[in-house]
C-alpha cells in the first residue's frame, strides 16, 4: 500500500471519530515487534507533554505507532505528506 492509500485510510478514520475524541492511536497491522508496553507509554507521554503527537521508535515504519491529537483532524496526519 502506497502513501496515498495509507493517508486516505487515516483520513477516513479521523473523520469517523466522535467530536469529543482528544486523540487517536494509529498502528499498522504488520508490526510484530510492537509490545503491549508501548501503547501505555505513548499515552503517558502524550498526556504529560505539550506535544500534539508522539510516536514509537524501533517498532516498525517511521511514525508508527503514533498517538495524534485531534487538532490534526484536518491535516490527515503529521509526516504522511
Major sheet: arrangement of strands = 1-3-2
Q: List the uncertain runs.
A: none
The total beta strand count reads 3
Average pLDDT, rounded to a whole number, is: 76
How would you characterize this protein structure?
This protein has helices spanning 3-15, 38-48, and strands spanning 23-26, 53-55, 66-69. The protein contains 2 helices and 3 strands, in the order αβαββ. It has a 3-stranded antiparallel beta sheet with strand order 1-3-2, covered by helices on one side. With 81 residues, the protein is α+β, with helices and mostly antiparallel strands. It has one domain (3-72).
Layout of helices and strands:
Layout: H1 3-15, E1 23-26, H2 38-48, E2 53-55, E3 66-69
Antiparallel strand pairs: 1-3, 2-3
Tags for this model:
81 residues, alpha+beta, three-stranded antiparallel sheet, 30% helix
Summarize the structure.
The chain is built from two helices and three strands. By secondary structure, it is α+β, with helices and mostly antiparallel strands.
Amino acid at each position: 500500500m502506497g502513501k496515498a492509500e495509507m493517508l486516505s485510510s487515516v483520513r477516513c478514520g479521523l473523520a469517523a471519530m466522535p467530536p469529543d475524541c482528544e486523540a487517536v492511536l494509529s498502528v499498522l497491522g504488520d508490526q510484530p515487534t510492537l509490545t503491549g508496553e508501548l501503547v501505555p507509554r505513548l499515552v503517558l507521554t502524550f498526556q504529560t507533554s505539550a506535544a500534539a503527537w508522539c510516536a514509537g521508535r524501533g517498532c516498525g515504519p517511521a511514525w508508527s505507532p503514533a498517538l495524534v491529537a485531534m487538532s490534526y483532524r484536518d491535516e490527515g496526519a503529521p509526516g504522511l505528506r
